[in-house]
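Instructor's aside before we start: the two examples that follow are unrelated to each other. I chose them only because their records fit on one page, so don't look for a connection. First example below.
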Amino acid sequence: MQRRFTLKALTASVALAALGTAPAFAADTIKVGVLHSLSGTMAISETVLKDTVLMAIEDINKKGGVMGKQLEPVIVDPASNWPLFAEKTKQLLGQDKVSVIFGCWTSVSRKSVLPVVEEMNGLLFYPVQYEGEELSKNVFYTGAAPNQQAIPAVDYLMSKEGGGAKRWVLLGTDYVYPRTTNKILRAYLKSKGVKESDIDEKYTPFGHSDYQTIVADVKKFSAGGKTAVVSTINGDSNVPFYKELGNAGLKAKDVPVVAFSVGEEELRGVDTKPLVGHLAAWNYFMSIKNPTNTAFIKQWTEYAKAKKIPGHMDKPLTNDPMEATWIGIHMWKQAVEKAKSTDTDKVIAAMAGQTFNAPSGIVSKMDEKNHHLHKSVFIGEIKADGQFNVVWKTPGPVKAKPWSPYIEGNDKKPDQPAGKSM
């Protein structure tokens, strides 16, 4: 009798599987979407974030998973194609039934994904600095808002220790993040008494490779007074830009460049010797010394070698968006366990006030209201080995201001997403 029951049950389960009702492991795993460009112009920056998510998943699974279930990554390649980001998000939420998505780099990709996660009530963790001017119930922003990166960088360059810049070149890739950030910076500079004629704004398309004319123009503009360049160039265009800076002999002591999208990974393919002293503003650098960061770098080094990750198996590097990804996935895990559920609305409620020991050396906190992390700000000088020497930092974590006070009307906007119950 027992044997007949077992056979019946087995036959039924095989029939269900054949019908494609559900994969056998669906009840035992929690699916996690990984939405990063693995090809195209943004692959130089995003591929390593996919690997960071996978490292975190492996680490969490080894320690027992989440609520006793293993995490199962579902990886897609939106290929630096902005409409494809939306399509892949629909696939992850609708077809693959993921509980959360970790992904995007550019703001145009995030803007493409946003209406999909809102309509389907999904959850996106976005790990990169951005222009602000957005709050969504369905997004947690683990990168910096402008007051956690762009404004402090400009303040530093205006200061005596930063060189006392009087003229400004705002140079970026032509899309929403650079244009909005530069709109904020232009208003901020004017509030500090900088004249319109002392601000030059330039944009290049994604994948742009010839910076000869632009660098020559910067050199000419700098003849009018102490000049600094604020770079929001994104993706693989950074390589020819920095090469041209070196070719033109534009040294940091003459015209310092501060970048918001260049870190350890982007400098990998560049001769950094002519770039020594140029700057980047981030909320984490690999060179920061503390036990949490030492452990993070060690874990990444071992993982990269074990998985034979190109570039990193020989020269492992960590950077700011990797740290933001690492913080995000661990905070999500903590929120799921607090909520005792992967239900989107329950996890959103449980995310408020989550904390995590960050490799940057602080206890990182998710704001109770505005879905942004409180973050320390660091400004680093490029060294000959492609690492950064921290020359300035905030005394402690800075609360994000998603709505910049330098854009008119923002003072009336609430500091929490619409539709979020508190």
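Example two begins here.
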Amino acid sequence: FWYFGAPELLPDSAKEWLYQHNIEAIAAVVSLSLYAGAFMAEDIRSGIRSVPTVQLEAARALGLGFVAAMRLVVLPQAVRTSVPPLVSQTLNLWKDTSIATVIGTAELMYQAAKVESATFKSFEAFTFATVSYLGISLAITALAAWYQHRYPPRSA
């Protein structure tokens, strides 16, 4: 939709600007951001809901306003429980970038296909792309494991 449909709803001057400034990348970023953002928002919401309401009530009883109570009491606890699903969504987003090849965005798999068609070395090109995806995924997972070890979720 963001590549084929949305530009048609814009004025002609905006369409011309988009087509001159790599609409494929813009559409890929917008669509993947909205897609992942919906899931991440739900993960954060469920993390906030996992904190007992008595925590917020106690903070409010001590004189903190709603924003201060959320910032100082609820959100630090919610972040600890939200990190694992957020990491999972981040990994899904990283792997979903390969979908952008469909609209011609020059991402990793697209570049591997270009190298393969120019050199006829498909095994090497796609092995490099696969190892790159694996390496970055493992780095994200290791960073999340370090965070979980350093800041484990606390139970009430």
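The chain has one domain: 6-150.
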